[in-house]
Amino acid sequence: MLLRTSPEHPIRSSEITPEAVYLNRRHFIGAAAGAATLATAAFLAPRILGRGSNGGNQSSAAAGAILPQDRRFKALGPDDPLTPYDKVTTYNNFYEFGTGKEDPSQNAGTLKTDPWSVQVDGEAGKPGRYALEDLLSPHKLEDRVYRLRCVEGWSMVIPWQGFPLRDLLRRVEPTSAARYVEFTTLHDVKQMPGQRFRVLDWPYVEGLRLDEAMHPLTILATGLYGRDLPNQNGAPLRLVVPWKYGFKSIKSIVRIRLTRDEPRTSWNLAAPQEYGFYANVNPQVDHPRWSQATERRLGGGLLAEIRRRPTLPFNGYAREVESLYSGMDLGRYY
Questions:
Q1: CA 30, CA 38: separation in Å to the nearest integer?
Q2: pTM of the entire structure?
């Protein structure tokens, strides 16, 4: 999924939706607290946004009915239209609810996202457990349109809502020993029936190097298309790192841990010969079972989905992030 970072296409203040203030108390808290600090990086497009509350049980695409796309959000460019909402919410990888692409949207109604809390600990000066409302309250939530590419070779363009992960990390004060950030998904077989099967070693774990986590493009997302994240898309809190393959987009996060050592991540443990720790989009490094040189963009109609397009280094974000990997062999550190 994609995040728009280009400053030449800002979201105008006239597109802000006032009704959003009334739609969800969590986003109201975040918007109100952030109003005192309006300064943002040049690539950000601030917006007050709303979350439709559904008692923490948002499982279907219908739960996120939105205004027409062209009235709320802008495409990245003529060749990068937004992926339709119904495609974004019914074509998902979320093995906790099944291995088929349609399984999460059909099975995620068992997930209860309210109340929700996140433990932040490890190499942190101010660790703690945060209720979701408290986690969001200091932050101004913003819209960002990002491309996100899956290692399987398909990609989407999605308008996310969230806040930079680095804002939370600064809040808990990483110690001088912190070098990585580890993320963990909820483990509850009653709520996540896919965890009854040993597809992966549950709970699902993912990780970033600290400088990757602190990069301004890396966000904790709470919504898409101006609505709460549906359960199948990682409600209520997920990671979005637009220059990395989709399996870095860990969903339904319950723990964030700062560590000295590189985290042992789920896909790297399951298939180390196929999934390295870094997961940067590198079209010159093939997956052992298929080429990564091209991709297909979902949601643009049958012909658009059949047509292959060249895969861009770092998913098109090379200018912003390639300095993070200066001197590294990206064929070895895949």
A1: 12
A2: 0.81
